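User:
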Amino acid sequence: MRTRLFLRTAEFLWQEGHTAHATKIEAVEETEKIINLYAEFAEKYMALPVIKGLKSENERVCRAIDTYCH
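Assistant: Predicted structure:
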């Protein structure tokens, strides 16, 4: 049997970060800052299109209040 790559690995490039903050406001500010940094790098230096968004409840990281993606 031949080993096959996980489909998402073959088709998408994603970055992942996990943080914890005292307030939701601090968490959202940090998340938006970093997601914009990743997006700028991907678009400007790697010529990759980026779609930023908030994942649905079913797609969230376990126990996360919100999960953002790009």
